[in-house]
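Severity: low
Component: inverse-folding endpoint
Summary: output formatting inconsistent between runs
Steps to reproduce: submit the following C-alpha cells with default settings.
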C-alpha cells in the first residue's frame, strides 16, 4: 500500500462511529457485521434525516398547496438532484425512483421490453446474474417469444469475453449485465462490454446493486443506457432504489404503472402522461426513503468513493489472505478484479452451519445460494458462506471472523 492509501485507511476507519447499530454486542460478543451484500447499516445522519422528515415535514409531494407539502416536495426533489450528481447523470429527468434494484429492472423489462422486444429477438445476460436480472427477462421472453442468451464464465468467476463477442449479434436487443456479482465479488468489465454492445446498436442495462457502495459510478463516462441500484445497499433506507435511464430512451418508453402523479390529463376519452421522471413514478412515492437516500448520498460523497474503494481493496486482500490459511477452505470466485465479497466453502462443513455458529460468536454473514442459483449450479454446489464488507469494517472484524470460523470448524469437523 502506498503512503497515500494508508492515510486513507486512517481517515476511513473513524466513520464506523457514525453507525449506532455497530456499537452493540450480539450473543455476548462485539458485533462483526459482514453481511453488507444483503444490506448495509445506516449512519446516524440517515436515521436522523428520516426521523426529522416525519417529525417536521411529512406531507404528500407534488400535490399540496400547503407549507409542509412544499417542504416535502423540495426535500424529495433535492434528493433527486443529489443522486443525479452522485452518478453524474445529465439531468434529473433521468433519475427514476423505484422500490429497489429489482423494481428498476422489472420496470425496464416491462416498459422497454414491451415496446422494443419481440418474437425472434435475443436478450443477453450472464451466468453470474442475481435472480433479479434473470427472472424479469425470462418472463419477458415468455410474453414476447424472445430468447434469453447467457454469457458463460470460467472457474475463477470471470466472464468469457470472447464468448460474449460471439453471442452479441443483430438479433440482440438488450445486454443486461451485473456490475459486481453478489455471489462471487467479480467486477465485470462493463465499460468494455458497453462499447462492444454499442458497436452493435445494443443498449445496456447494468445491475449496480453490489457496485454502487464500493466504486464510483459515472453513467455518462460509462455511456450506460440503464443503471439500477438499491438505497439499502448504500447506507440508505430499505424500499427505495433508482433506475437511471438515458433521457431519449425513457422518453420513448411507455409508462410502467398507471395512477396518480404519472399523468398530465385524464379523461374517459384518453389520458396523457406526465413528463419525465414523473411518468414512471405512479402513486405516492417512498418520500422518507428518497430523502433518507439523499442523506446517504451526501454522507458517501463526503467520505469519497475512491477512498472507500482503496480501503475495501486492502480489507478484502487481508480477509482473503487469512481465510486461505484455513485448511480445507475453498474460495468461490477468484476473479482478478474483485471487490468486497468473500464467498467460500470448507470441506466437511455446511455453509448454513458455519453461518449459525459464527452468529453465536457475534459474526453476521450470509449462507445460501445468494439468489444466484445458476452460479451455484456452475460450481456444482448448493450454497456458500459469504462474508461481505463495507467501509466501516475493520481489521478487528476480520480477526474476530477468522477466530470464530476456526472455532466453528473444530466443532463441525
Ligand atoms: N442481493 C444479497 O444478499 P433488491 O433486493 O432489489 O434491493 O436487490 C436485488 C439485487 C439485484 N442484484 C444484485 C447483484 C443483488 O445483489 C441484489 C440483492 C442481496 O446478495 C439480497 S438477495
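Observed output (run 2 of 3):
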Amino acid at each position: 500500500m502506498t503512503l497515500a492509501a494508508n492515510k486513507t485507511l486512517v481517515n476511513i476507519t473513524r466513520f464506523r462511529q457514525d453507525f449506532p447499530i455497530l456499537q452493540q454486542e450480539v450473543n455476548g460478543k462485539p458485533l462483526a457485521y459482514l453481511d453488507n451484500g444483503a444490506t448495509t447499516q445506516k449512519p446516524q445522519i440517515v436515521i436522523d434525516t428520516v426521523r426529522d422528515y416525519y417529525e417536521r415535514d411529512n406531507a404528500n409531494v407534488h400535490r399540496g398547496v400547503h407549507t409542509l407539502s412544499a417542504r416535502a416536495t423540495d426535500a424529495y426533489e433535492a434528493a433527486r438532484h443529489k443522486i443525479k450528481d452522485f452518478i453524474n447523470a445529465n439531468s434529473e429527468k433521468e433519475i427514476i425512483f423505484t422500490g429497489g434494484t429489482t423494481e428498476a429492472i422489472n420496470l425496464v423489462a416491462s416498459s422497454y421490453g414491451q415496446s422494443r422486444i419481440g418474437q425472434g429477438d435475443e436478450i443477453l445476460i450472464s451466468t453470474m446474474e442475481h435472480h433479479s436480472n434473470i427472472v424479469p427477462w425470462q418472463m419477458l421472453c415468455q410474453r414476447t417469444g424472445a430468447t434469453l442468451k447467457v454469457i458463460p464464465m470460467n472457474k475463477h468467476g470471470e466472464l468469457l469475453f470472447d464468448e460474449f463477442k460471439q453471442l452479441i449479434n443483430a438479433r440482440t436487443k438488450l445486454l443486461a449485465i451485473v456490475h459486481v456479482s453478489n455471489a462471487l465479488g467479480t467486477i465485470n468489465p462493463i465499460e468494455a462490454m458497453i462499447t462492444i454492445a454499442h458497436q452493435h446498436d445494443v443498449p445496456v442495462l447494468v445491475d449496480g446493486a453490489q457496485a454502487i457502495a464500493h466504486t464510483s459510478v459515472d453513467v455518462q463516462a460509462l455511456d450506460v443506457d440503464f443503471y439500477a441500484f438499491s438505497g439499502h445497499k448504500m447506507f440508505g433506507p430499505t424500499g427505495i432504489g433508482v433506475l437511471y435511464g438515458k433521457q431519449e430512451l425513457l422518453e420513448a418508453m411507455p409508462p410502467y404503472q398507471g395512477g396518480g402523479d404519472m399523468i398530465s390529463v385524464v379523461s374517459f376519452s384518453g389520458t396523457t402522461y406526465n413528463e419525465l421522471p414523473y411518468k414512471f413514478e405512479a402513486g405516492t412515492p417512498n418520500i422518507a426513503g428518497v430523502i433518507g437516500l439523499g442523506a446517504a448520498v451526501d454522507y458517501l460523497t463526503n467520505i469519497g468513493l475512491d477512498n472507500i474503494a482503496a480501503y475495501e481493496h486492502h480489507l478484502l486482500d487481508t480477509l482473503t489472505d487469512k481465510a486461505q490459511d484455513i485448511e480445507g477452505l475453498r474460495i468461490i470466485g477468484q476473479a482478478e478484479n474483485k471487490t468486497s465479497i468473500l464467498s467460500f466453502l470448507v470441506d466437511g462443513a455446511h455453509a448454513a452451519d458455519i453461518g449459525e455458529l459464527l452468529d453465536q460468536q457475534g459474526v453476521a454473514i450470509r449462507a445460501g445460494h445468494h439468489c444466484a442459483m445458476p452460479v451455484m449450479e456452475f460450481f456444482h454446489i448448493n450454497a456458500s458462506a459469504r462474508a461481505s464488507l463495507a467501509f466501516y469494517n475493520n481489521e478487528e472484524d476480520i480477526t474476530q471472523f477468522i477466530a470464530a470460523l476456526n472455532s466453528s470448524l473444530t466443532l463441525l469437523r
